[in-house]
């Protein structure tokens, strides 16, 4: 099988992000971001996705975390899309429930190049240290947009913000691992193209 590898460098006046992805990895995350909680969440996603991801990012976090979190999603999603090429042979669909103690989140997705996000995470509001966890939605949107996925993320229940967020990123990783598994040879679409 072709090596499924993607890399991107994106520099704007707001952020600078460099990223490399191996889809067929071992869940190794080498992440350097000035947002420790967000880095921890990305590490969870990567771990359960089975991909290897190296990502270095910096940006105008003195404004707020919004730009860097959103742009990290765009760049990581772009790397994954590049790595997947024409997406021949992938399972395409994936779904997972991830519990973390009292919290439970469900992720259902389709890597079929139809970007869409339904984000029903109403309990994920507040701050962890100085980090506003509502901004995690910007990562999800950016990632879905550039990875080309239709994504439904639903919080079933939860109390602790750290647990809710981490359950969401684990569910995204688990569902991604399923969807990107190579299970066939052809383009997984009745249209014959994605
Ligand atoms: Mn944790």
UniProtKB/TrEMBL annotation:
GO CC, any one term: cytoplasm
GO biological process, one term: L-histidine biosynthetic process
Domain of life: Bacteria
Enzyme nomenclature, EC number: 4.2.1.19
Protein's cellular compartments: Cytoplasm
Molecular-function GO term, any one: imidazoleglycerol-phosphate dehydratase activity
Pathway: Amino-acid biosynthesis; L-histidine biosynthesis; L-histidine from 5-phospho-alpha-D-ribose 1-diphosphate: step 6/9
Catalytic activity from the UniProt record: D-erythro-1-(imidazol-4-yl)glycerol 3-phosphate = 3-(imidazol-4-yl)-2-oxopropyl phosphate + H2O
Keywords carried by this UniProt record: Amino-acid biosynthesis, Cytoplasm, Histidine biosynthesis, Lyase
Entry-linked PANTHER family: IMIDAZOLEGLYCEROL-PHOSPHATE DEHYDRATASE (PTHR23133:SF2), IMIDAZOLEGLYCEROL-PHOSPHATE DEHYDRATASE HIS7 (PTHR23133)
Protein family membership: Belongs to the imidazoleglycerol-phosphate dehydratase family.
NCBIfam families: PRK00951.2-4
The protein's name in its UniProt record: Imidazoleglycerol-phosphate dehydratase
Native organism: Candidatus Amunia macphersoniae
């Amino acid at each position: 099988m072709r090596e499924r590898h993607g890399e991107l460098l994106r520099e704007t006046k707001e952020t600078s992000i460099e990223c490399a992805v191996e889809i067929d990895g071992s869940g190794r995350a080498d992440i350097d971001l000035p947002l420790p909680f967000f880095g921890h969440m990305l590490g969870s996603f990567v771990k359960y996705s089975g991909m290897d991801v190296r990502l270095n990012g910096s940006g105008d976090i003195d404004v707020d975390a919004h730009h860097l979190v959103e742009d990290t999603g765009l760049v990581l999603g772009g790397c994954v899309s590049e790595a997947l090429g024409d997406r021949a042979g992938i399972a395409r669909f994936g779904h997972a429930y991830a519990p973390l103690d009292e919290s439970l989140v469900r992720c259902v997705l389709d890597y079929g190049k139809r970007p869409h996000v339904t984000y029903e995470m109403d309990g994920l509001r507040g701050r962890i240290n100085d980090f506003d966890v509502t901004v995690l939605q910007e990562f999800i949107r950016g990632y879905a947009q550039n990875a080309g996925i239709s994504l439904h993320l639903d919080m079933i229940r939860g109390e602790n913000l750290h647990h809710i967020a981490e359950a969401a990123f684990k569910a995204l990783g688990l569902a991604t691992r399923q969807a990107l598994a190579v299970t066939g040879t052809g383009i997984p679409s009745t249209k014959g193209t994605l």
